[in-house]
Amino acid sequence: MRRTSLLRAAAVLAAAALALAACGDTEELEDALGEAADVEEEEDLDEPADDDTDEADDEAEDDGADDAAADGDAGSLVFYSAGPGGLANDLVEAFTAETGIEVEMFQSTTGDVLGRLEAEMNNPIADVVYLASWVPAVNYKDQGRTQPYTPANTDDLNDGWADEDGHFWGRDGSALALTVNTDIAPSMPTDWEDLAAPEWEDLVIMPDPQESGTARDFVAAFVDDRGEDEAFALFDALADNGLAIEGPNRPAVDSVVSGTHAAVIAGVDYMGYGDAAAGEPLEVVLAESGTIVTPRPMFITEWAENVDEAQAFMDFVFSDTAQQIVVDTFLMPARTSIEVQDSMQPFDEVPLLSYDWANVEATGDDLLAEFVSRFIR
Asked: Which residue, 261, 229, 237, 233, is CA-closest to 247?
């Protein structure tokens, strides 16, 4: 069943939901979106969101109808995806080529995906959802909005990358790192505290945790590991040293590429790896005392109409083919048997902070409010 017109109509509903939030009627919306309700994961986009959506709709209208008619048994599904946009497109194209199943995709930021899902709740559309943050998937399961399914090829999944009841699965992931411009850095840091040294004054930028879900998770995880007093003592030292806190991940990394700043603190690693591979003078450093790795969850919605096709898609994204596509974009693969690129560190070699996702979820709102009140004017 083709539902492109419904996808377009949903954008209007999403705008209405945002308008309600602006008017103060936010309690129900925030409950549904959980910790990431107001977070724009703009760092995950490779192209503008509207371009991705229009392209997906145009392809569905121009090519999808003829293909479906020619292969009516293959079926179709609706997929809502956070970025990177290029990765989402590559996975969808490879899946359709292998199975004949057509995919109608809405691709945007995690915040936009969650807002659209909420706006559509009286007439839900998405069969499969992929997000860049773990916490919203936990909330969706708790609200009965996901269904359990164990995909093929997940016997060697990274530890901790699956819901214990099989409702959502980490398709890929990223570590938060120090991304350094080696042309202008005064020294090569090895840990978070190094960037509070006088030689780094006014040279460090951090993604704004109001706009970056991963930065928001970092603040809560860092507090979970160090304790609130020690964690905020470091944040105070960084702020006193001229730390800039601006925007989501992509603009922060671009600021380092351009030389405006010399290092990003707590930025996603895959952007730095990708830019370095493209010839930029960047080095990605994983803090010796530990960092966080965010598995990026994928799940089938409770209301999915195309369950067989959705399950086939879940099976595919953990296949060797799909996991290699993931690695090609410098994201960590979900499976231990898939090798990463030479410039990357595999998940089991990343030094980790001691944190619990349940604590990150429970404390995230309060710690974000504290961080904003102290450091963002």
From this structure: 261
* Count of positions (residues) in the chain: 377
Question: How many other CB atoms sit within 10 Å of the CB of residue 53?
Answer: 20
Reported as a single tens digit per residue, the pLDDT across 154-208 is 999 999 999 999 999 999 999 999 999 999 999 999 999 999 999 999 999 999 9
Cα 259 to Cα 256: distance, rounded to the nearest angstrom: 5
Contact 276, 284 (CB under 8 A): yes
H/E segment holding residue 357: helix 357-375
CB under 8 Å to 157, separation ≥6 — which residues? Answer: 169, 170, 318, 334, 335, 336
Q: From residue 61, give the alpha-carbon distance in Å to each of 125, 137, 335.
A: 17, 31, 35
User: Which of these, 260, 265, 258, lies nearest to 280 by C-alpha position?
Assistant: 258
* pTM score of the predicted model: 0.81
| % residues pLDDT > 90 (the chain) | 75
Domains of the chain and CATH, by start: 4-173+295-345 (3.40.190.10), 174-292+353-375 (3.40.190.10)
Give the CB-side neighbour count of residue 39, counting CA atoms within 13 A: 30
Strands 332-333 and 244-245: unpaired
**Secondary structure string (H, E, C) spanning 99-162:** HCCEEEEEECCHHHHHHHHHHCCCCCCCCEEECCCHHHHHHHHHCCCEECCCCCCCCCECCCCE
